[in-house]
Amino acid sequence: MEKTVDLRGLVCPEPVLRTKKLLDDASVAKVEALVETEVNVNNLQRLANSLKLRFQSTAENDFFRVVLERPATASDTAGAAATHEHETAQTMQTIASNVGTVVFLPKDKFGDGDPEFSANLLNLFLQTLLQSGHKPRAVLLANTGIKLLDPDAPTLKVLNDLKDAGAEVLACGLCVEFYGLKGKIPTDQITNMFAICEFLMAADKVIQP
Amino acid sequence: MTDRPNAIPRKLTANVKAAGCAAKLSSAELSQVLHGLPRHECKELLTSIENFEDAAVYKLREDLAIIQTVDFFPPVVDDPYLYGQIAATNALSDVYAMGGRPLLALNILCFPTCDYPLDVVHEILRGGGDQVAAAGAVVAGGHSIQSSEPVYGLCVTGIISPKEVLTNGGARAGDRLVLCKPIGTGVGLLAIKAGLLSQAAEQALIKGMTTLSTSTLECARAYNLTAATDVTGFGLIGHLHEMAKGSQLTVRLNADAVPLLPEMLALAEQGFVPAGAYGNRKSFEQFTTYINDVDLSLSDLLFDPQTSGGLLLALDKSQVEDLLRSLKKVGIDAACIGEFLDGKSGVVEVVSYGKNS
Questions:
Q1: For the residues B266-270, what does the mean pLDDT come to?
Q2: What's residue B355's pLDDT?
Q3: Is some CB atom of chain A closer than 8 A to the CB atom of B254?
Q4: What is the pTM of this model?
Q5: Across residues B87-99, what is the average pLDDT?
Q6: Distances B104 to A25, B85, B184, B310 between C-alpha atoms, Å
Q7: CA-CA distance, A69 to A31, in Å (whole number)?
Q8: Closest in A38, A51, A99 to B292, CB measured
Q9: Measured between CB atoms, does A12 come within 8 Å of chain B?
Q10: A144-164, pLDDT tens digit by residue?
């Protein structure tokens, strides 16, 4: 079921409250809301994110047309492909809305000195980062950097600690395959070049030791 | 609070666009408005208007200064007595934030008497008066006019020894920051209007907004405070920025340690975020670093405008534990939320050290 509501002229919190109440009914698949202010749009975007809905906002002459839509489920005709597409879109939405610091590790060493020493330095860097109080949004691993997630790597623990602290720790899928670590790195931590590119472009700051 | 008879025909908050301190002009707007206005230098005036101090302090004698402040806003809740209490707590807070003691207060009232029965006004003034009395001060009079939207607040006069004035400035590198009330009232007031708060969360919100800072300051005075303010319309980050700027230091805020009113994080996540929080984000984001490393809902609360918010105190790190302990003894749940560092003046660096660091 689809609903269209005109929420113009209502003061906060009415626009977001009325939209939420419509969506509390599981049979409502899509709500199109007309709202007046950017604050209304921002609040509806937060509502959409919290309910994992697709979100779209278009500026009209003197108001905004906002659409909140439930994603297609796996049982729908489009099937798993649509769900995957939606998940990618959802990740992109998160990236677009709020990316702080991204740590980019395109090799398994810190600098170019003695190999063992340089590997230890990188481990020390990650430990220090974890203890610094700074919480990067994402740690992206590419090329030999993906070996840091090898189950036998000494860096696995600190990367998992960063993940537990809220960072997304993601490895480049192509690289995982090339270095033969497929099956050893959890699939939910494997990403593609598109996401890596988006993260790097959207970040407030990229740290590459 | 909820068992008080509420027989008014129209809800007090019915037409209010922005509640409480969320109704303030934004920091950016205020700067623009004040820009170019003549500034009257006066050696007796111990506070400077540029520092956005909580109240004006005027030296009368070497050992005596008066503190003058005024604060008012549209209704934040539908219960008129409670609204009066909250407005008075908020107005008195500015005197405490300068380190002083309130002596007398004058009511400021704008009210559409055609829209509400007169006993609503009576209840507002009773709520305000009771709170002023609880602070050990007196209501000495006031002024009222007709208006299309209700507005209530007070002008409060207090006293202090000039040597004991606590301003935004004065903190030293290494000093710790203690926040004496949980944050989230802007989100909370929206949620009350939406009817989404549990009874426990509503009580916590109201307790926060009606708790006078009298005993907090009394307790804290036993320690060597270096700076103080109260968290109001500019939100926690805005007031931290004012303190950092006043002290010409950087503030490092441990986002994990900031006490939050119950249920506010989930409500902010669902989009119950007041316009004032977006305004504060716009005004103060440029002074923050790493703000996007915390979740959006938490950063919304860090920017959330507070009504009758808590005192924010700076003191030597060696005294923090003792201060927190003595505040706990008088029932104040305070927390150490950060520290001052040498660094770029006015910057608020956001980190996440965990709850108890």
A1: 97
A2: 63
A3: yes
A4: 0.88
A5: 95
A6: 53, 16, 29, 21
A7: 6
A8: A99
A9: yes
A10: 999 999 999 999 999 999 999
Two structure tokens written together for B195: 């009817």
Separation CA A190–CA A141 (nearest Å):
9
In this complex, is the C-beta atom of B270 within 8 Å of any C-beta atom belonging to chain A?
yes
List of residues 6+ apart from B170 with CB closer than 8 A: B226, B227, B246, B247, B314
Contact criterion met (CB < 8 Å) for B15 and A42? no
Mutation for testing the B interface, residue in A7, A10, A11 having most B CBs under 10 Å: A11
Q: Are residues A24 and A122 in the same domain?
A: no
Task: Count the domains in chain A.
Answer: 2
Model pLDDT, residue B191: 95
Query: Pick from B17, B269, B292: which is nearest to A46 by CB?
Result: B269
Whether B271 and A20 lie within 8 Å, measured CB to CB: yes
Residues near B14 by beta carbon (within 8 Å), at least 6 away in sequence: none
- Residue A132 lies in domain: 99-207
User: Which member of A37, A42, A50 has the closest CB to residue B270?
Assistant: A50
By the 8 A CB rule, do B123 and B80 touch? yes
DSSP, res B314: E
CATH code, domain with A119: 3.40.1260.10
Asked if residue A180 and residue A87 are part of one domain, the reply reads: no
Smallest CA-to-CA distance from B170 within B233, B98, B102, B255 is with B98
A116 to chain B, closest Cα gap in Å? 31
Closest to B234 measured CA to CA, from B30, B58, B6: B30
Alpha carbon of A101: minimum distance to chain B alpha carbons (Å): 6
* Average pLDDT of span B285-306: 94
- Report ipTM (2 d.p.): 0.85
Per-residue pLDDT of B342-354, as tens digits, reads: 999 999 999 987 6
Instruction: With both helix axes pointing from N to C terminus, report the angle between B80-97 and B199-210 in degrees, rounded to the nearest 10.
Output: 50
Residue A32 sits in the same domain as residue A118: no
Percent of chain A with pLDDT over 70: 88
Whether A88 and A110 share a structural domain = no
The tens digit of pLDDT for each residue in A90-146 reads: 555 555 556 899 999 999 999 999 999 999 999 999 999 999 888 899 999 999 999
